[in-house]
Each structure stands twice: as structure tokens, then as C-alpha cells.
Amino acid sequence: MCPPLTTKNIKQYEPILAVGTSNGSVLVFHLTSGLLHKELSIHSCEVKGIEWISLSGFISFATSTPNNLGLVRNELQLVDLPTGRSIAFRGERGNDEPAIEMIKVSHLKQYLAVVFKDKPLEIWDVRTCTLLREMSKNFPTATALEWSPSHNLKSLRKKQLAAREAMARQTVASDTEVSSVESSVISLLQEAESKSELSQNISAREHFVFTGADGQVYHLTVEGNSVKDSARIPPDGSMGSITCIAWKGDILVLGDVDGNLNFWDLKARVSRGIPTHRSWVKKIRFAPGKGNQKLLAMYNDGAEIWDSKEVQMVSSLRSGRNVNFRILDVDWCTSDKVVLASDDGCIRVLDLSMKASCFRMDEQDLIEPVWCPYLLVPRASLTLKAFLLHQPWDEKYSLDITNIDIKKLLLDPDFTLLQRCLLVARLYGDESELHFWTIAAHYLHSLCQEKPAKPDTAILPEQLVNPLDICYDILCENSYFQKFQLERVNLQEVKRSTYDHTRKCADQLLLLGQTDRAVQLLLETSSENAHYYCDSLKACLVTTVTSSGPSQSTIKLVATNMIANGKLAEGVQLLCLIDKAADACRYLQTYGEWNRAAWLAKTMGSDAFAVALRGMQQQQSVCVAAQAPLCPQVRLSSEECADVLRRWVDHLCSPQVNQKSKAILVLLSLGCFTKVAEMLHSMRYFDRAALFVEACLKYGAFEVNDDTNILFLKSCLCSLNLHI
Question: Which residues form the WDR11 TPR domain (predicted)?
Fold first, then answer.
């Protein structure tokens, strides 16, 4: 998390969170808006840590996988957030050395401590990117490190200001011609100049503590180019190996591998050890804010918030008990909010009780206006939806809404009803309506391609050329569905590696009418395989089967007996071999395999949508055929295919199943538009029914008669009653 909000940076402050990823990039999020602010590709390997040096810059480090000697390539980058520019902080250093364990920036952002795994630490000057000191080889390896919040910057400022004032007085006293007014102006200018140059000219003294492998605490002081060893504190016998340190005010907290927290009161010179009975303490961090002594502790299995004044736990979060995710990292985002990074890829902001934090929508800092109709009261939301969908009383659309890009599209009179319904479904996030209008628009355009309803009807060219998206599976046209199934089986055949895989491919090819290729796969069965004899006989049967009366009767009898004795799949294959696909579908439906029956009907039949076209147009419909090598044999007429799907619709509408929404989509694919409108009305989808009837009338899918007029008026009146 970026440096906390203070009275000095309140005008420039933005709540920015930097998150390192495994691919070497750093994601920068704006927490108030919840949006991704920037994505910076900085490293070539996994990011291990990030330390902010200002509100607009940070230092990140990454380490590559170790080689045979256990050495890695360390990458330490200084990043300027506004420009995205990054520079190698350590210059040419970093190749074939021990991995960096952690980096810590001092409280005044002057110095940087770099801790290695099996190498003494380094102290760097952040402002000049220069190495101040590299510790000697006999220097202890640090297991945990923390900078002190205390420094001598204020005293240095006072001394420098006093020196400048004394110099100004001497200058004024020696020059008798300078008036008193001019001297006061000079002193004010010099004081302002001294304050502006203070951060550049002064190197304040800061100090830090770290622990060695033996648990001993070392205290070092850094001032300018000098690093001095100040004191050493012997290890605490009750503590294990120290893993992390936090320091704020007079309170120093240490965590170890056994889950113990040790609170040191430096002013009172007392310490208190608390066993948390948790796993290894991975990280501890004090909350920002003067006088705020809340402490955040992270473990392998969760996190806790402690009050360091009272030395007691405030709240706890445990993976597997409170939550299902595992915590990867923690930090404070404000004085009373915690931010967590979890293994499910989420960033979570929690309050002090470790529960999800909420805030008012009007307090959210959003870049663009929010479109969320579900925040409105239901009546207002439904009214807005009705206005967006249709305004038949006037040729000119009008609506007082926020001036956004979509407004011009919604108020465009050339924007067709189907296009409008699709757009509003997306705006409202209504998945049911989106699927309905997508399929309805496709098949109404297909109908319009055969017979345009009106000369001025707008038709989308891409809808006339492209088939329905394959994600709709069985709802697509038969020819396109068959082509896709063949491509799918061919892909599976290329990737087959086991006998079971080969057998499944052969079974699918038989059902798709690709008997030659299926026979080849059956003959590939090894003689050592237990199914060798059966596969060989099946190959002979597939090759020699004829459509003569005696053979058909025998095969049909065998298939019926197999189905009756639990061999449903094998019996269906035999029926398909003798062109009894309609009987096969009926058997599948009888035994509850409704989806399988629909799949078989779609793969073996001509386009069922042609039945509806012939009924409405009283002429033969021309079905779009796929490429000859990829098209399976058509063994079901369009009427038989439609009958199978209609029985499936009846099953979906039954009280035991009650999937009428899915049944409506199947009816749309069959071109039964009148039945669709009646079902929508019976399900009390009055808005959708009225709009669908009007769309069908425009595209010529309905004949204008008393029945359609009554249905349209009933739907409109019922819809109007709902909105009043």
C-alpha cells in the first residue's frame, strides 16, 4: 500500500495499491474506485516484494529460479508511477548471487536495506541510488529487519534554519544602505528557500534493528555515508527464530517461527511474550496514524489484529474455518481498514472485525458514471426498462438520462426493435432475456432471408451470413451443428491415446454416419485386447449391413432385445445403422435420455427450422448444406427431427421438470413462434411476449389475424397493468 494519508499530502494523496504477480508485472489498483489503474511489466520473473518510496514511486524486487549452485538473478527496480519508467536500482549487480529475502525502506524514505539469504545485507541511498555500505562477510545474516520511526530531522532543520538566519543578520548588519523592509523580505525568502531545499541537502540520522540467526537483536545507525553499530541485545530464550519485526513509537514487536509475539515497551523497558498458538508469523505491520497502536499479524493459516497497548487480540481470520481462501499477503490501506491478497486472485478490503468493508456509493470515486439499474426501486427500474425498449406512440424517442455514448444509440429511430431488446438485456445483465433475444433475432432474420416481411425492414447482414454461436449447441441449425460435431470428433481422434478413447471416437463416428472411418478405428483393436473379437464382428456388421427386409428385421429385433436388457447405447447404434434413427430417438426418450435423443436428432436430421418455414410460406425450404466431406448422412427428415424436439419440449414443460424457459428456446429453434408467444404470455412474461409478437409481425412470422391481435393486445394490457 502507498504511504498513508497525512495533512501534508492530502492534496496529492490517492489510495493506490501495488500488487506483484508471478509473471513479473505489477498491477496498480485504485482502491476507492476498485479499478485497475495501471499494469506495469517490470520484471522477468516472479515479484517477491514491493516498497513505496513516495506517493508516486516504489521499489520492487524479483528473483529467478536458482541454478545448480543455488544462485539466482536478482532484479531490483525503481519505478516512477506517473511515467511508468523503471531503472535498475543496483545497476549491473544481481547476476549469480544469493536470493534477496526482503527489502526495507527507512521511515524518511532516505535509505534502503537489502537483505539476502546467505549474504550480508546492503545499505543504499534511495535518493541517489548509490551503495552506502556492504557489510563484511563475517556480518550476521539478518532474519528480520525494521527501521525505527524516530530520527533527528527536526533538530537538523532547526539548526539549518538558525544558521541561515544568522548569516542573513550578518549580511544585513554589514550593509547599512539596506532598509529594514528589504532585510525582512530577504529573511523570508531565505527561510522559504531553506525549507524547499531541506529534503535535498539534509541527510537525517535514522536507525534500524535486525535479528540474526541466533536470535540476537542488532541496532545500527545510518547517517549520510556512515553506518555505525550501536547496540546488541541478547536473544530471548522464550522466542524461536525471529521472522519479522514491527516498530512504532516506543513499541517494538517481534514474531517467530513458533507463532509467538513479543511486545517490547522501550520506554518502560519491559517485554511481554504472547503465544498465539498459530503457525509461523510471516508478517506484522502497525496501522498508520498517530497514536494508532493496532497491529496486523499474518500467519500461514490466516491473520489477526492486535491492540499493542492492551496486548490483546481484536479480531481473527483463519483459513478453512472463517474463509475458504488462503491469505498470501496483508497490509493496512487506512487506519481502520485491512487489505488482503488471497490465492483465489482477489484483493479484499476488510474492517477491524475482519469482515468485508462497505461504503456508500456516493462516496466512491468513479472515473465514469455508474450504470446499475438494480440500485433503483423496482418500479422505477421497470419503467426505465420499458422506455428503453419501446416507444410506439412517437417516432421520435426522448428520454432524460445522463449524456453517455449509449444514449444516441437508444434514441436512434433506425435502431430496430430486436437490436434494442438485445442491448437492453445486456445493460440490465438479464441472462435469460439475452439468450432469448439472441436466438429469436437469429431465427427471425433467417426467416426474413427467405421472405422479407416489409421493404423497409432493417436486416443485419452479419446475421444472415453467420450461424448461431456454437455455445447454444443443440439450438443451432442442424447443418452447422452436424459440421461442428464432426470437427469435434476429428479433433478427439487426433488426440486419442488409449483404447477407451478410440472406442468412444468410433461410437461417435457411427452415430454421425461416418461408417468407413469408424470401421478403420474398430480394426485397429489389438489382438491381445479383450474386445478384439467384438470389435472385429462390429466392423464386419457395419461394412455388410444392407437395407433389405430380412436383415433389417433381424437387426431391429437384436437392437430391441439389447435395449430391453440394459444395452441402450449398443441398441441405438444398431438402429442407426439400419436408418431407424427415429426409433432410436424414441427409445432414448423412453429411457429418460432426453438430451442424448435431441443430440441424435440434430446430428441425423435435416434442418427442423425448415418445417416452420414451409408451413408459413407454403413452399419448399432450401436448407443450407455444409461442405460435403464434413456433412454426415441425413437419416431423419426435418419433420421427424422436429417431432423429437417437440416431445422434448413437452417433457421440459412438464411439472416434474419445469424448465419452460429452456423449452421456449427450443421452440424458437423450431420456428414455432406462435407457440413461443403463447408460452411467454402463460408464464406472465407480458413485456417479452408483447415485444416478441410485434417483432414477429414486422418480420412476417405471424399472419395478421384476430388471434395474433388478441394475443398482442392482451400482452400489452397485462404489461401496462404491471407498470402502473
Answer: 487-608
